[in-house]
């Protein structure tokens, strides 16, 4: 059967499917009709629970509807159904329907978050998001009771951002819990949480968090504008939001930070940045982001400034090695051996004796093998992954040297490069450097040091032109903000950091009430 006939048959099968049923958006006054509509819309799933009750007198009916597994059943039984059954002992009901629904809301429902719904869209969204719906016969409104009770992961230390000294709590997949963790760090009444719904079908809640009076209004306006343009069926992870609102999808560099640490998010918000929290993921987005931010870690501030400065300098050195070391090895060995000290050159030549490949092919083989081991170790279970990464690297490296495929110095170069990449706090930036490393290696293979310098210039041009939510990615290097250099490559003492980052152009730029001179 040809591909054309296959698609024709598939089209015929799809045309025979029943179209989606359209419902009137307004609720009905008849209880049976409302229950029939909700059952038909969901096609009577096994987890749909409908509990019908009598209220006030035997002939007056009401119903509690919820999805089993999404709600807290003890709360429903104790604070809703039990109260409604107790009310059934009364013989009089308010004649006015508005009085009846208000009386039920104020006197019978013992839950904190209660709202009224008037349309089928209100009911369906609340029902599928973990709320219980209370229908009253003869009333075209419902009470939506926020009684979410699904299973969630407990608050644990982030796996991807572990610290030696610092808080041990991390975000989880529950939106309310993540908002609570931020409020625990920032007890400012000006802290704002603005809620959006994204996903045409999933309708997930997304919250934008910032401090009014600090954040620049234009940055906040631009973030809100971009979030409103999101048009997806579902956003299962914050990475979908990040890719939608970033400035350049062609750039290898991350333009929006992501983190599992509440302390890191709180620090960013206090600097005038914006946090984006998506329900269902522990990774919170921080915007805008600059290149200098990717080398900063919360541990820099938890230790004394000399230690923090040393660690930050170490990371910059690690970034240099992660990008340039293999390409410099290729360029010097293949094109400019005269630039290598004589004793080191003789040692490299001796170790390369008998190797059948040129330095470029040798480097690509080892770099590709290392990336393969790293990816395999990340995908396997934790205990097995560590074994594969360590044992696999040792065995393959030693076997390659013994077989004469690569030289020992090449194994050292690739190993140091791999270790240096792990010293960068931002995993997204690490991936970008790993990709750029292959570009440098390719340029060094054809043009030597000239190729390395040429690619370096091109990357700098790209970084200078790159922006994150309108903020230059290369700031505070270019445009230059000398005041922000206190917390860039060096980490100045806390007492000297009296202002928020100047490149953020915050409304309130002072982080303390009075500066001490």
From TrEMBL:
TM region positions: 313-335, 409-427, 439-459
CC per GO annotation: plasma membrane
Keyword Membrane carried by entry: yes
Record localization: Cell membrane; Membrane
Presence of keyword Transmembrane helix: yes
This protein's UniProt keywords: Membrane, Transmembrane, Transmembrane helix
Chain segments carrying region Disordered: 1-21
Biological process, per Gene Ontology: spore germination
Membrane topology: Multi-pass membrane protein
Cross-referenced InterPro entries: Spore_Ger, UPF0353/GerABKA_families
Record family assignment: Belongs to the GerABKA family.
Protein name: Spore germination protein
Annotated organism of origin: Lentibacillus cibarius
């Amino acid at each position: 059967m040809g591909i054309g006939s296959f698609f024709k048959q598939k089209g015929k099968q799809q045309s025979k499917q029943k179209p989606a049923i359209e419902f009137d958006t307004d609720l009905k006054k008849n209880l049976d009709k409302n229950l029939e509509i909700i059952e038909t819309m969901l096609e009577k799933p096994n987890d749909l629970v409908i509990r019908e009750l009598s209220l006030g007198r035997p002939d007056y009916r009401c119903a509690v509807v919820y999805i089993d597994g999404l709600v807290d059943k003890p709360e429903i039984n104790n604070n809703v159904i039990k109260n409604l059954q107790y009310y059934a002992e009364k013989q009089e009901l308010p004649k006015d329907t508005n009085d009846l629904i208000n009386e039920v809301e104020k006197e019978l429902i013992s839950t904190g978050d209660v709202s009224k719904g008037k349309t089928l869209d209100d009911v369906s969204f609340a029902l599928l998001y973990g709320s219980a719906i209370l229908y009253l016969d003869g009333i075209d409104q419902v009470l939506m009771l926020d009684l979410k009770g699904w299973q969630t992961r407990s608050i644990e230390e982030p796996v991807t951002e572990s610290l030696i000294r610092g808080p041990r709590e991390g975000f989880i997949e529950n939106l309310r819990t993540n908002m609570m963790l931020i409020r625990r760090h920032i007890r400012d009444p000006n802290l704002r949480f603005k809620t959006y719904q994204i996903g045409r079908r999933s309708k997930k809640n997304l919250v934008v968090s910032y401090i009014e009076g600090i954040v620049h209004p234009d940055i906040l306006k631009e973030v809100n504008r971009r979030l409103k343009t999101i048009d997806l069926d579902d956003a299962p992870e914050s990475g979908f939001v990040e890719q939608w609102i970033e400035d350049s999808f062609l750039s290898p560099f991350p333009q929006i930070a992501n983190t599992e640490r509440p302390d890191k998010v709180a620090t960013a918000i206090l600097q005038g940045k914006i946090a984006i929290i998506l329900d269902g993921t522990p990774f919170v987005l921080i915007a805008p982001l600059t290149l200098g931010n990717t080398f900063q870690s919360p541990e820099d501030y938890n230790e004394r400034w000399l230690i923090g400065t040393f660690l930050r300098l170490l990371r910059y050195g690690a970034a240099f090695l992660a990008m340039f070391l293999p390409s410099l090895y290729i360029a010097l060995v293949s094109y400019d051996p005269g630039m290598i000290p004589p004793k080191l050159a003789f040692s490299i030549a001796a170790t390369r004796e008998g190797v059948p490949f040129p330095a470029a092919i040798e480097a690509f083989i080892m770099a590709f093998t290392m990336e393969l081991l790293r990816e395999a170790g990340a995908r396997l279970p934790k205990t097995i992954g560590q074994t594969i990464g360590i044992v696999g690297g040792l065995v393959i490296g030693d076997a390659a040297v013994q077989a004469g495929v690569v030289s020992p110095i090449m194994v050292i170069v690739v190993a140091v490069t791999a270790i240096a990449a792990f010293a960068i706090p931002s995993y997204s930036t690490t991936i970008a450097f790993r990709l750029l490393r292959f570009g440098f290696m390719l340029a060094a293979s054809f043009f030597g040091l000239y190729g390395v310098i040429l690619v370096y210039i091109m990357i700098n041009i790209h970084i200078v032109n790159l922006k994150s939510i309108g903020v230059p990615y290369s700031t505070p290097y270019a445009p230059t903000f000398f005041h922000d250099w206190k917390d860039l490559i060096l980490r100045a003492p806390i007492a000297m950091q009296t202002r928020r980052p100047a490149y953020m152009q915050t409304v309130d730029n002072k982080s303390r009430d009075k500066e001490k001179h």
